[in-house]
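Quick note —
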Amino acid sequence: MPDDHLFDETELQAELARLPGWEVRDGWLRRKYRTPGWPHTLLLANTIGYLAEAAYHHPDLSLGYAEVTVKLQTHRVRGITAHDTELAAKIDEVVLWKPSGGALEGFPKTWVH
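Predicted structure written out below.
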């Protein structure tokens, strides 16, 4: 498919520069999110699942008590493409959001990071 262009090293470094907290390891784009505990871990995993299904691009997830590890790779080409970096950016945008003023107070303890 034309949109399955595998990023070369230069392109990948440029993408990583706009995705703080993400890294490339063993051919996967990865990020570990820390959570306040198990209920938030499940909420985070479900949120990522929802975004992935909407995008029709599915990551591998690993869950621990207070963490979720996301691994993205375009499976059909076994490498990292714009599908992966765009979904990574959307995941960050949604799961790291926290109110900053206004009527919404936000969770009073440490949030997902």
